[in-house]
Automatic annotation (TrEMBL):
MF GO annotations: phosphotransferase activity, for other substituted phosphate groups
Predominant place of localization: membrane
PANTHER family in alphabetical order: COLANIC BIOSYNTHESIS UDP-GLUCOSE LIPID CARRIER TRANSFERASE, SLL5057 PROTEIN
Location relative to the cell: Membrane
The entry's keywords: Membrane, Transferase, Transmembrane, Transmembrane helix
Organism (species): Krasilnikovia cinnamomea
Organism ancestry: Bacteria, Bacillati, Actinomycetota, Actinomycetes, Micromonosporales
Protein name per Swiss-Prot or TrEMBL: Undecaprenyl-phosphate galactose phosphotransferase WbaP/exopolysaccharide biosynthesis polyprenyl glycosylphosphotransferase
Region (Disordered): 1-20
Length: 502
C-alpha cells in the first residue's frame, strides 16, 4: 500500500558507535538464511564429488581407475570417496563459492566453482607427480569433469528453489532500509524490486535530506526522518541498511555508520548513483585510504567483440543449414494460410544508424500496413512506445499467431546475422520510420540489433517502452561474451513458455 506521510522523531542521544568491543559483542547476523543454505550446498557438493568417483569407477575399467593403487585398494577408496570430496569442499570454500554475497544471483558463484575445478585438477596432478603415483589421465578427467557438472547442476537447482522461496514466501530474503534523499531511495527501490529473486525487500526509507519536499508524497514503503538508524532497524525488523546516492558521499558519515553497525548483525551496503552499470566495469581503487569508484568504458571492440562477430556468423550459417527443413515447412504453411509473400521485409535501423531490411516470416495479412492506420485512429495500440502492439491483433492470420507465439517467425533473421546486419544477441531492431533516435535511445545504435536480447528474456511485448529502452541501454553498457551466452540460454526457456509473445 502507498504511504503519503513520514514520521519525524529527533533522537536525543545519537550514538557514534565508538564504545564497543569486538570481543564482547556478538557478530551474529540478523539475516540467517544463508547458513542453512550454505550447509545444504556443502553437503550437495560433497555428495556430487562422491557420486563422480562412483560413476568413474562404474563406467571405466576398474584397473584403469585404480591404477597406482593395485596393492592397496583401501587407500584408493579413502582417496576417491573421502579425501577427494573433502578436497573439493575445501577448495570451493577457499575460492569463495560459499560466500553469501555470490549466492542466489549472478554468475560469480558458478565462475568460482569453475576456478575450484581447475585448482582440483592441478592439485591432483601435482600430488600424483610428487608421490610418483600412476594415475590414469582419463580417469582423473572423468572424475573431475563429472564432479564439476554435477556440482553446477545441483547449485543451479538449489538457486531455483531459493528463488521460488523468495518470490512466494519471502524466506531467504534481506529486509532493507534505504538511507538517502527520497528520489535516490525511490530509484534504488525500483532497481532492487525489479528482481524478486535477488532477495532484497525494502521495508522503510530513512531520509537524510529534503524532509519538507517529501511531505505528502505517496511512497511504496513508510518514510522516516530524524531517527536513530539502529532503533529503526529493530522497529521494522530489518537486517540490511542500503546507503543511497549522495548519502554515501557525506564526509565521515558513512564511516561512522559502519562503526555503529559493527557487532549488531546488520549488513551495510552502498548503492551509488550507477544503478545500471554492472560489476565488470566498476573497480574500487583505494588511494591513501580514499576508495575511488572507477567506471571503465563499455568494451565494444577488441578480441571479445571479434569473437562475438565470429560466433554470430558461424552460428547463423549452421542454423540456416540445419533448420532449412523447418524453414521450408513454415514457408509452405504461410502460403497455404494466406496468399502472398512468405517473407516480410521492413526497413530497420542498425549499427551506427545504418538502415537495413529485416527478414521475418510474414504473420499478417498482406494489407496489414494499410489497416494499421485505422487501428491507430481507434487508439487500440497497447504499446506506449515506437512499436504498434495488440495482443489480439486482427491483422494476424491463424498460422501467423502460432509462429509468433513460438517465435519461429524470427528465424529468417539469421540471414541478417550472416550478412553482418544483426547479431544473435543485441537491442531490439526498431523500424526506421518510427522515431528520430535522439537522446538516450540513440545509444542503442552503438551495437548491432539482435534476434534476442534482454528485452526478450525480460518480458518482450509485456514491457513498457521506457523499460525496454532501459534494458537495451543496460546491455550496451555492460556487454560481454559471457553475458551473451547467458541471454541465449535464458531465451530458450522464455520461448518455451511463450512469455510476452504476440
Amino acid at each position: 500500500m502507498p504511504y503519503d506521510s513520514f514520521e519525524w522523531q529527533q533522537d536525543p542521544h545519537p550514538t557514534n558507535g565508538v564504545p564497543r568491543s569486538a570481543w564482547t559483542r556478538s557478530h551474529r547476523r540478523l539475516s540467517r538464511w544463508h547458513r542453512p543454505y550454505t550447509m545444504i550446498l556443502v553437503l550437495l557438493d560433497f555428495a556430487c564429488a562422491v557420486l563422480a568417483s562412483y560413476l568413474a569407477g562404474t563406467f571405466i575399467e576398474a584397473e584403469k581407475v585404480t591404477a597406482g593403487f593395485q596393492d592397496d585398494p583401501g587407500t584408493f577408496t579413502f582417496f576417491a570417496y573421502i579425501l577427494l570430496p573433502l578436497g573439493w569442499v575445501v577448495i570451493l570454500w577457499g575460492n569463495g563459492s560459499y560466500d553469501r554475497r555470490y549466492l542466489g544471483l549472478g554468475s560469480e558463484e558458478f565462475k568460482r566453482v569453475v576456478r575450484a575445478f581447475v585448482t582440483v585438477v592441478a592439485g591432483v596432478s601435482l600430488l600424483a607427480f610428487g608421490t610418483k603415483t600412476e594415475l590414469s589421465r582419463g580417469s582423473v578427467a572423468t572424475v573431475s569433469v563429472s564432479a564439476l557438472v554435477l556440482i553446477l547442476i545441483c547449485r543451479y537447482t538449489a538457486r531455483q528453489v531459493l528463488h521460488v522461496a523468495r518470490r512466494r514466501t519471502g524466506h531467504g530474503a534481506h529486509r532493507m532500509i534505504l538511507v538517502g534523499t527520497l528520489p535516490e531511495a525511490l530509484e534504488v527501490y525500483t532497481a532492487v524490486t525489479r528482481s524478486p529473486a535477488a532477495g532484497l525487500i525494502p521495508v522503510a526509507i530513512h531520509l537524510t535530506d529534503g524532509y519538507a519536499a517529501a511531505r505528502g508524497i505517496e511512497t511504496p514503503v513508510p518514510v522516516y526522518a530524524g531517527r536513530d538508524v539502529l532503533s529503526l532497524v529493530r522497529e521494522v525488523g530489518a537486517d540490511t541498511i542500503a546507503v543511497c546516492g549522495s548519502a554515501s558521499a557525506e564526509p565521515g558519515e558513512l564511516r561512522r555508520l559502519a562503526w555503529q553497525l559493527e557487532g549488531t548483525g546488520v549488513d551495510l551496503v552502498v548503492a551509488p548513483q550507477l544503478t545500471d552499470i554492472a560489476g565488470p566495469r566498476v573497480h574500487i581503487r583505494p588511494i591513501e585510504g580514499l576508495p575511488l569508484l572507477h567506471v571503465e568504458e563499455p568494451t565494444l571492440s577488441g578480441p571479445g567483440w571479434l569473437a562475438k562477430n565470429l560466433l554470430d556468423r558461424v552460428a547463423a550459417a549452421f542454423g540456416l543449414l540445419l533448420l532449412s527443413p523447418v524453414l521450408l515447412a513454415i514457408a509452405l504453411g504461410i502460403r497455404l494460410s494466406d496468399p502472398g509473400p512468405v517473407f516480410f521485409r521492413q526497413p530497420r535501423v542498425g549499427h551506427e544508424g545504418r538502415t537495413f531490411r529485416v527478414w521475418k516470416f510474414r504473420t499478417m495479412y498482406v494489407d496489414a500496413e494499410e489497416r494499421k492506420a485505422s487501428l491507430k485512429e481507434l487508439e487500440l495500440n497497447e504499446s506506449d512506445g515506437m512499436l504498434f502492439k495488440m495482443k489480439e491483433d486482427p491483422r494476424v492470420f491463424s498460422f501467423g499467431q502460432k509462429l509468433r507465439a513460438s517465435s519461429l517467425d524470427e528465424l529468417p533473421q539469421l540471414i541478417n546475422v550472416l550478412k553482418g546486419e544483426m547479431s544473435l544477441v543485441g537491442p531490439r531492431p526498431l523500424p526506421a520510420d518510427d522515431g528520430d533516435y535522439l537522446g538516450d535511445v540513440r545509444r542503442r545504435l552503438l551495437v548491432r540489433p539482435g534476434i534476442t536480447g534482454l528485452w526478450q528474456v525480460s518480458g518482450r511485448s509485456d514491457l513498457s517502452w521506457d523499460e525496454a529502452v532501459r534494458l537495451d541501454l543496460y546491455y550496451v553498457d555492460n556487454w560481454s561474451l559471457t553475458y551473451d551466452l547467458a541471454i541465449m540460454w535464458r531465451t530458450i526457456w522464455v520461448v518455451l513458455r511463450r512469455k510476452g509473445a504476440y
